[in-house]
């Protein structure tokens, strides 16, 4: 079921068009990654969906609403650089945020404690926010973004400024939250998108180049690969491998040969036959597929 539909969305800042005729749909209950290099228009799209920026043209339609109707109560948004009242404690900040969303003092208190537990920062609830680590601040930001129980949670680069521990904490929290809500998050970290998203939106210079379930995109773009390791001088084997019928390309990355092939099983048989005949000193043969990074590069350069 479609939760939100974007049609022909364009945003122009002065003479610069940051988002160009973008259309997509967000499926209810999915975690969707908005991927693209710097300046692709990710923040601009999120801010338009969050109702913080007016589109130049196009429509945003939330399920059950008219096109371009105010949908702010359905949306939770954590900007890339959230502003906190750092002198407040985490708990005070959440109670204050709840009251801004028209919760009574009692409701805000209950909700604050519930979310502090859910986001794993309950122990630090009476500490001032300026003492929180980056990961704790992001978790508090997410708690604040969902205090009004939005149907769609949008996070702008939620892990890009965090150290590996903070990053892991926030990704784990997103994994938990995605059980109960639709999440749209922007990133240029492909492994994060790979780890937690179900669907991708791939953006470049304001254009949406590809979108869809991650597995469908993998099938469309991935290529079969064989990785081969040898003892001795592997350069000797590059040319010999290229002569095999199923091999289309060979790249030497840190003494591992990455072999692109047309059919992975056929290529394996050809490699094994040749290796057995010529006694190649193979130490490892792995059948593989290209990574999400390869997919990203293919879409970005097509
Ligand atoms: N207020 C503004 N006025 C003028 N140009 C802007 C404004 N905000 C963004 N832009 C431009 O619009 C384009 C898209 O910016 P946006 O911040 O949406 O990209 P992004 O994909 O989020 O980038 P990043 O990954 O660097 O955060 C960029 O070229 C940017 O310089």
UniProtKB/TrEMBL annotation:
InterPro entries (alphabetical): AAA+_ATPase, ABC_transporter-like_ATP-bd, ABC_transporter-like_CS, DrrA1/2-like_C, P-loop_NTPase
Gene3D superfamilies in UniProt: P-loop containing nucleotide triphosphate hydrolases (3.40.50.300)
Sequence ranges assigned to domain ABC transporter in this UniProt record: 4-230
Keywords, sorted A to Z: ATP-binding, Nucleotide-binding, Transport
Annotated signal sequence range: none
Keyword Transport: yes
Family: Belongs to the ABC transporter superfamily.
The protein's name: Putative ABC transporter ATP-binding protein YxlF
Gene, per the UniProt record: yxlF
């Amino acid at each position: 079921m479609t939760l939100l539909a974007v049609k022909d969305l364009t945003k122009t800042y002065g003479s610069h068009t940051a988002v160009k005729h973008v259309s997509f749909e967000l499926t209810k209950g999915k975690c969707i990654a908005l991927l693209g290099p710097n300046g692709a228009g990710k923040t601009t799209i999120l801010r338009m969906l969050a109702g913080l920026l007016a589109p130049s043209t196009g429509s945003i339609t939330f399920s059950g609403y008219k096109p371009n109707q105010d949908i702010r109560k359905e949306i939770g948004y954590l900007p890339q650089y959230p502003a906190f009242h750092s002198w407040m404690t985490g708990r005070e900040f959440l109670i204050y945020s709840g009251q801004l969303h028209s919760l009574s003092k009692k409701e805000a208190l209950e909700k604050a404690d519930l979310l502090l537990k859910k986001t794993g920062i309950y122990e630090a609830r009476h500490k001032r926010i300026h003492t929180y680590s980056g990961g704790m601040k992001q978790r508090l930001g997410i708690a604040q973004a969902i205090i009004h129980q939005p149907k769609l949670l949008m996070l702008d680069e939620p892990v890009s400024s965090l150290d590996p521990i903070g990053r892991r904490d926030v990704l784990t929290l997103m994994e938990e939250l995605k059980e109960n809500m639709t999440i749209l998050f922007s990133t240029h970290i492909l492994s994060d998108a790979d780890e937690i998203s179900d669907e991708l939106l791939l953006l470049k210079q304001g254009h949406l180049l590809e979108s869809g379930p991650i597995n469908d995109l993998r099938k469309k773009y991935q290529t079969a690969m064989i990785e081969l390791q040898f003892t001795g001088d592997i350069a000797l084997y590059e040319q010999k491998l290229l002569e095999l019928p199923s091999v289309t390309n060979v790249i030497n990355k840190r003494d591992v040969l990455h072999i692109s092939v047309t059919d992975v099983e056929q290529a394996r048989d050809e490699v094994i036959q040749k290796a057995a005949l010529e006694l190649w000193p193979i130490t490892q043969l792995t059948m593989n597929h290209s990574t999400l990074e390869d997919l990203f590069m293919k879409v970005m350069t097509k």
